[in-house]
Amino acid sequence: MPINIPSGLPATEILKEEKIFIMDEVRSTSQNIRPLNILIFNLMPEKEKTELQLLRLLGNTPLQVNVTFLNTATHESKNVSKNHLESFYTTFEHVKHRKFDGMIITGAPIELFEFHEVDFWDEMVEIMEWTKTNVTSVLNICWGAQAALYYHYGIGKYTLPSKCSGVFDHIVHDSTVKLIRGFNDVYTAPHSRNTSVSREAILNHPDLELVSESDEAGAFIIVSRDEKQIMITGHLEYDADTLKQEYDRDVAKGIEPQVPKHYFPNDDPTKKPLNRWRSHTHLLFSNWLNYYVYQETPYEWE
Length: 302
What we know:
- The chain is of the alpha/beta class.
- It has a single domain, classed as Class I glutamine amidotransferase (GATase) domain (Rossmann fold).
- Helices cover about 30% and strands about 25% of the residues.
- Strands 1, 2, 3, 4, 5, 6, 7, 8, 9, 10, 11 and 12 form a twelve-stranded mixed beta sheet that branches.
- Strand 11 and strand 12 form a beta hairpin.
């Protein structure tokens, strides 16, 4: 089944080329189907790239999905045109009266700030509190995951000695957890962050389960016992070349970044990186939509 996205969204043509089944708002209204309503709070600076990455994953399941993009009202996005935001995004004030079957809160390159120093933190808190009663399940990614752990469970973050950047092996602790059904016992996933969270704090919290982790990158998949909050500390949604683009950007800035670990063939930045996490990414998003959203959300919210 397709994803229903706003008419004219730039990602549309690329998704069509990739044979992702999509439909616009006009066609979707003619189908007598109860679609899933997913809200995406896109905090990434290059919003169009993140839109494409997430829509590609949401469109690869048997479920029809309506997508709404949310932007901050208290922070001005500088890496995307105002016209794009006005055409395809809304703010919390316009959706807070609604119920959503699922929500994705993305990462943001602000992890070195304390949470209360983030200029839209009050807005973020209001939205995270709202999800408790208005969203069936929330998928929190990278900084979004750290924010959720801090707000909902009182687990803070700490700064790493050096940036965690690369593609790392992860182990599965409990293969019966629905979110990772079908996963290999060991799989790879990308990370790109300057902070981390305490695995001990997660293990000791009665409301959380540490589902998967990496010896090098730390805690990775954390699921709340009530299954309403899922925290992914890395970036499974990344394309094959996303870490390369970040690395090249930092090199151009004169930052002299470390080469992302286990990413480039033979650790040579001149060689083309390969996507070694795609299958598990699709599986995780499919499992989330099916087991945590579709199977749990009421047919009629009211």
